[in-house]
Amino acid sequence: MCGLFITVEGPEGAGKTTIIERLRMDFSASGVPVLATREPGGIEIAEKIRTIILDKEHTMMDGRTEALLYAAARRQHLTEKIIPALRRGTLVLCDRFIDSSLAYQGFARGLGIDEVYAINQFAVNGLMPDITLYFDIEPEAGLKRIAKHAGREINRLDLETIEFHQKVREGYKLLLNRFPERMMEIDASQPMDNVYEAAKNIIEEQLKSYETK
Ligand SMILES: Nc1ncnc2c1ncn2[C@@H]1O[C@H](COP(=O)(O)OP(=O)(O)OP(=O)(O)O)[C@@H](O)[C@H]1O
Ligand SMILES: Cc1cn([C@H]2C[C@H](O)[C@@H](COP(=O)(O)O)O2)c(=O)[nH]c1=O
Question: Looking at CB atoms within 10 Å, which of 3, 109, 151, 207 has the fewest?
């Protein structure tokens, strides 16, 4: 695989989507081929799965069903969009990936990080991100941001209890210890420009070491 695969993770309202869009525009303007995409979604089949998972009416959805649907959406997104882009040498910026499943379904939902990792290994077939930027924020602060964000639809996962969102953050902290070689933490409670600069610097460093390989 030739391109660089960067994922951005974190609790709700950490600023992932906003910063990815700014990175996409800036890298693209400086001539770097870049693709910004998201999970669950990014392509038609996965966007349809997203609608099913996040529908507020689906309160009866079983935790394992939820985990399998995220993994299925991921598989299709990888094969149809991410892998072809990486083969073309593109910088891929993906809003959430496998670590969301580990933190939300594995830890917060209580299915087990190892169990959810196993079903996801079947989905990704060994393809892991080169770098994962973890945007850290207290869930209360992140949820306040999205409540203020005009036009941001509130989905089934947003409506989970504050304890659930705190467990998501705790889950991410466990993952930082588990994958120190690829996961890097950024304080996302900082002003937007600082978060952006921190993310951009890390990616530029990666691009440099990648070019010298
Ligand atoms: N560093 C920041 N400081 C203040 N507000 C921010 C910051 N970053 C993002 N925001 C604002 O917070 C809101 C949520 O941002 P964004 O949608 O990028 O978060 P997200 O991490 O993608 O959320 P989710 O995963 O829940 O979709 C937006 O209104 C955005 O403008
Ligand atoms: C990929 C993935 C996502 N989730 C959760 C996290 C969020 O609550 C929603 C996605 O909404 P966003 O506004 O696009 O962030 O889905 C999850 O629980 N597990 C996953 O694997």
Answer: 151
> How long is the chain?
213
Q: Tell me, in angstroms, the distance from the centre of ligand 2 to residue 189's CA.
A: 20
Relative orientation angle of helices 162-178 and 113-124, to the nearest 10 degrees: 70
Atom of ligand 1 nearest to the CA of 14: 21
Model ipTM value: 0.98
**For ligand 1, is residue 149 a contact (CB within 6 Å)?**
yes
The closest residue, in CA terms, to atom 18 on ligand 2 is: 104
pLDDT tens-digit series, residues 143-188: 999 999 888 889 999 999 999 999 999 999 999 999 999 999 999 9
Here the contacts of 46-51 (C-beta below 8 Å, separation 24 or greater) are 46/73, 46/74, 46/76, 46/77, 49/73, 49/76
**Of 10, 7, 80, 23, nearest to 198 (Cα)?**
23
Task: Assess whether the C-beta atom of 129 lies below 6 angstroms from ligand 2.
Answer: no
Centroid of ligand 1 to alpha carbon of 133 (angstroms)? 15
Closest CA to 188 of 163, 208, 165, 169: 169
Peptide bond into 40 cis (omega under 30): yes
Q: Which atom of ligand 2 is nearest to the CA of 53?
A: 16
CA nearest ligand 1 atom 14, residue: 13
Domains plus CATH for the chain?
4-211 (3.40.50.300)
203-206-209 Cα angle (round to 5): 155
